[in-house]
Amino acid sequence: MEIKIRKAERCDLNAILDIVNYEILNSTVLYDYEERTYQQQLEWFKKKQADKMPIIIAEIENQVAGFGTYGIFRPWAAYRFSIEHSIYVHKKLRGKGVGKELLSKLIELAKDSGFHTMIAGVDGSNEKSYEFHKNFGFEEIGTFKEIGFKFNKWLDLRFLQLLLK
Questions:
Q1: Is the predicted pLDDT of residue 3 greater than 90, yes or no?
Q2: pLDDT digits 0-9 by tens, 82-130
Q3: Which PANTHER family does this UniProt record tie to the protein (predicted)?
Q4: Over 55-109, what HEC string results?
Q5: Are 101 and 66 in contact (CB under 8 A)?
Q6: Distance between CA atoms of 99 and 129, rounded to whole angstroms?
Q7: Under DSSP, is residue 12 helix (H, G, I), strand (E, B) or coil?
Q8: Is the dihedral of CA 24, 108, 62, 71 positive or negative?
C-alpha cells in the first residue's frame, strides 16, 4: 500500500472535515465540543494559505487517509521560528504508517522554511501519540494539569518539543 503525500487542495476540505469532526465527537485529540462546518474549515484553509503555512494530505489509493499542518506557536514576533503541528489520520487507516509519513514531511518542510523548533500538544491520556512523537525525537517539556474539560472529565495536556537543527 503506497502512501502519497501532497499539498492539500480545496477539494480535500470535505475529507479533512470528516476526519476532524470524527475526532471532535469521539476523542480528546481535539478539545472542541461542536462539529465544524464546511465554512469554518474553508476559513481555516484560507488562513493557512494567507499565512503561508502548509497543509499536506496523505493519500492511499486516491483517498484522503490523513492530513497535517503547522502554524506559528504564539502570535508574537519572538515566536516566529517556533511552530506547533497537528496530524490527523482517518480512523480506519491508523497503524499503516500514515502519521509517520505526514510528520516526516512536516519536519522536512519546517526545516526547509527555517523554523527552529516544532511543538506538539498531546492529550495526557493519548499514550500512542506521546510514544509516536518520542520516536521522532520529541522531548516532553511539561504538562498542564486539568487544562481542558471534555466528556465530563478534566484533561491534562502534554507539550513535547523537537529542535529542528
A1: yes
A2: 999 999 999 999 999 999 999 999 999 999 999 999 999 999 999 999 9
A3: N-ACETYLTRANSFERASE, UPF0039 PROTEIN C11D3.02C
A4: EEEEEECCEEEEEEEEEECCCCHHHCCEEEEEEEECHHHCCCCHHHHHHHHHHHH
A5: no
A6: 10
A7: helix
A8: positive
Domain boundaries 3-163, corresponding CATH code: 3.40.630.30
Find where cell 489520520 sits: 89
Which cell goes with 88?
Answer: 490527523
Tell me: the pLDDT tens digits for 47-63? 999 999 999 999 999 99
* pTM, rounded to two decimals: 0.95
Set of cell numbers at residue 42: 474553508
Match 505526514 to its residue by C-alpha cell: 102
Residue 117 vs residues 9, 56, 100: alpha-carbon distances, Å:
26, 19, 18
Which residues does 145 contact at the CB level (< 8 Å), separation at least 6? 156
